[in-house]
Model the fold of this input.
Amino acid sequence: MTQELAKPAAAGPIRIGNLTVNRLGFGAMRVCGSQVWGEPADRSAAVTLLRRAYELGHTFFDTADSYGPHVSERLIAEALHPYPKDLVIATKGGLLRPRPARWDECGTPEHLRSAVEGSLQRLRVERIDLYQLHAPDPKVPYSESIGALAELQRTGKIRHLGISNVTVKQLDEARRIAPVVSVQNEYNLENRSDEDVLLACEQAGIAFIPWYPLGAGKALKAARVKRIAARLGATPSQIALAWLLAHSPVMLPIPGTGSIGHLEENAAAAQVRLLETDLADLS
Done:
């Protein structure tokens, strides 16, 4: 495999609405400080990492206003604005961070309108390529949250809408209000509890963005994963990412890291090809 093919482009393309990106994205949560709170310890290194992610071929960056909060979005703009034409930046809103350990849902129309305006300013764009509701707010009817974002889409501030941390029922409800082009739920070798949501996305042609794609690490230590990795000359993390890519054609993993070494290791997972026997072993 050539050096060039060892990049995210080797995973092939995927459509998000009318946008096309490489099917191995980059999650920009870990460029913030500890506990996804505050500025990184080395801001220059974080900017360098974001630029390296794009150089490697990650054309889909996922972030959120709650990362930092606001830090990740600002760093992306500092590192990459004016943005390359093939780079798609997705952000999310609907969570508040009163302190490091808190992630509080807030899906009121008023908050979401303010959140979108803030993301537009921090990312230095006039329209957000993909805006995702970070999580349903149990205190607010889901239709009101989605309706507010649909209105912002109609005014031209959002190109495409996505949703996150949802059930099939919530996906169906959102789709009755506005076109939904992506779903971002937790999914990995260890946790496949949202297989029904993934199947619904496959049937509708909606991109499925698995957050926490490497899980808590338990699966990476499994004998079967280590055995496959040794045979292919890969790392367990690369096997976990390759499995996601092979498991569904609508899968768009977004591994994140604050380390350039790990960034390059994850990017190389795009070239790993699992055999049918490997997939059966990992099922």
Observations:
- The radius of gyration is 18 Å.
